[in-house]
Structure to design on (161 residues):
């Protein structure tokens, strides 16, 4: 049986009080739900994903192949990724263009026990691990209206707390 990703995801509603790395730009284009190509910095990759959004295979491709493949993609995600300098298992994804307004915190774990025991930091917003906002492959399935509706619900929920 395939493993589930060992991560929790939260919204970032305010600024992060921690020191961050320089951003790394990701441009992701989905050929379908299980195949994506991406430009990560100056590197081009093609990835095959499992149903649980786990990368099964990743190969480096040429810029020319990348440009040819993205012609047939209808969905794309552009985001900047930052690592927390004092916590390399925590990253922040800041979305651009279509998904502007979404800033997601990702916390990766080495074991299920570590994940189950984790208590979020005071500066982290509501948990979104089991929502369409948690993974790019699920995010692209949302209409713009549905994306805005879900994001607004989480932001309002946080304001009520």
């Amino acid at each position: 049986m395939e493993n589930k990703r060992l991560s929790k995801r939260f919204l970032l509603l305010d600024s992060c009080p921690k020191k961050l790395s320089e951003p790394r730009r990701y441009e992701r284009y989905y050929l379908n739900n299980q195949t994506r190509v991406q430009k990560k910095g100056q590197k081009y990759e093609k990835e095959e994903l499992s149903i649980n959004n786990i990368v099964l295979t990743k190969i480096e491709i040429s810029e020319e192949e990348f440009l040819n493949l993205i012609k047939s993609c209808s969905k794309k995600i552009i985001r900047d990724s930052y690592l927390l300098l004092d916590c390399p298992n925590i990253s922040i994804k800041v979305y651009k263009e279509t998904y502007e307004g979404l800033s997601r915190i990702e916390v990766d774990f080495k074991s299920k026990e570590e994940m189950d025991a984790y208590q979020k930091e005071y500066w982290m917003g509501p948990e979104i691990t089991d929502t369409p906002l948690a993974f790019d492959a699920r995010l692209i399935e949302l209409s713009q209206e549905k994306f805005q509706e879900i994001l607004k619900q989480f932001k309002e929920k946080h304001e009520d707390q």
